[in-house]
Amino acid sequence: MTARPADVRIVTFGCRLNAYESEVIRAQASAAGLAEAAIVNTCAVTAEAERQARQAIRRLRREHPGARILVTGCAAQIDPARFAAMPEVDQVIGNAEKLDPATWREARPARVRVGDIGSITAIARQAGGEFKDRARAFVEVQQGCDHRCTFCVIPLGRGPSRSVPVGGVVERVHALAAAGFREVVLTGVDLTAYGGDLPGKPALGALVRRLLALVPELERLRLSSLDPVEVDDELVALFGSEKRLMPHAHLSVQAGDDSVLKRMARRHRRADVIALAQRLRRARPDLALGADLIAGFPGESDRAFADSLELIDAAGLTHLHVFPFSPRPGTPAARWKPVPGPVIRRRAAALRAKGAEALAAYAATRIGACESVLVEKPGAGRSEHYLPVRFEGAAATGSLLALTIAGARGGTLLGEAQG
After folding, report:
1. Which overall architecture, per CATH, does domain 5-115 show?
2. What is the pLDDT of residues 342-373, one digit of tens each?
3. Neighbouring residues of 356: CB distance < 8 A, sequence distance ≥ 6
């Protein structure tokens, strides 16, 4: 292999925040001249995510025997020794260190470079011209989490909540719009906690309002997951008044039963989710609403699971992310009596089936509509409501097409050029 920045391969697992930070790493590694390397940006949300990361590391070593393999991300931050013990791994890098340009400039780095995430104050900085080959760009506006849900290890990997000042967000989005991105996604670990650490404590709604006003050239703004208890009134109102804010919200719900939510140490209850869904739809009747749901949390009875299943209809959920419960070492829930594995798998399958049915029903309501579609790859894109759209004809990645929806196949729309 010839030593050049293009020889760096990045494999990303997990959330949109990780996807964003992988682009930061890509830019910093390129500027540092890093070559003949593979970087694995891990996720710790589930045991399956960690298993897939280890599998990818072993595959990278087989496919690129001469490359340095560097492992970072939440799983590496939380359990660096486990990854350092893998013979395929050359270096383990913490979540703070991966965003430090000096990390990628060092000629002889330490085998393990992982600091105390709890003391971290910095948030990634990224120029506007990256996200090569992506249809949309991500902007990290918040990092870390101050809450302690009983199933979650992410605060151990991400540290306390901290926010990017509004001016910094505006500057980044200006740069991305100037680079040609039509859609930007605001992301964070606990996005609706935005601003709590800033002077004046501006909420997420205030950030969105000012961003759209100050970057009029941005055509589409999308938000990552929202905590139901933290969604502020201004943000709800903006879904109704600002058409550039996409009509799709994804809620961090996790369960539809109050007893389970209490054991999870979530701050909302079932009625809060339903009430928020109603408020959002009063503001934007066509809004598509998604949610994260965990199947088989310890102590989840048949009745409690039925409550989660019924919440899909009660709140009008269409875009589901379903996670079979995965005990995370170091969390309270990992010590509790588990639901049997076969039961967890059946419940997860039932949630997914119900979600697919709800998504297909929602997609059918869009037939005959004119949709603005962001092209993600040849013949495929996403509507404003984040529904997948298939179409014929050539179009550049990242461009916007006006398509008439001629039909739907399950949860996928079938678009045709207008005229």
Report:
1. 3-Layer(aba) Sandwich (3.40)
2. 999 999 999 999 999 999 999 999 999 999 99
3. 410, 411
